[in-house]
Automatic annotation (TrEMBL):
Keywords: Cell membrane, Membrane, Protein transport, Translocation, Transmembrane, Transmembrane helix, Transport. The keyword Transport applies. NCBIfam families: tatB. One of its GO terms (molecular function) is protein transmembrane transporter activity. GO terms for biological process: protein transport by the Tat complex. Residues 81-90, 98-109 have a biased composition (Low complexity). It is found in: Cell membrane; Membrane. This is Sec-independent protein translocase protein TatB. It holds the Pfam family TatA_B_E. Coiled coil: none annotated. Its main location: membrane. The Tat system comprises two distinct complexes: a TatABC complex, containing multiple copies of TatA, TatB and TatC subunits, and a separate TatA complex, containing only TatA subunits. Substrates initially bind to the TatABC complex, which probably triggers association of the separate TatA complex to form the active translocon.
Amino acid sequence: MFDIGFTELLLVGLVALVVLGPERLPGAVRTTGLWIGRLKRSFANIKAEVEREIGADEIRRQLHNERILDLEREMKQSIMPPGNSGASAPSSPPSPAAEPSAAAPAKPAGDAETAREDVPAAASEKPSAPTERPNP
């Protein structure tokens, strides 16, 4: 950190011995050492707290991004019909969510369908074909 050599430390020690005297020098060195230790611990605690906060922010950001990706996947699945073209009939049987039957069990409250409640209704519905209006 500081580029202090042995000769410089020896010079500082001799000046402190002359200024403070041999009686007060040990107490001053002890007090200085305690203050330096407290400062080091304080800086280490602050550094650890900042690193912890940065890590927590990264985790929050990652979870948020994963949630957005899941919502986008659900929107794509609900907008795009199964099969190659939208004009032909779907090749797979309709999903249990589209046609509830007595054999299908009720979905739990934490299912992926409830996550779509945050999306506006217009964005989650299939786009409808334009209808022709009768000319008056």
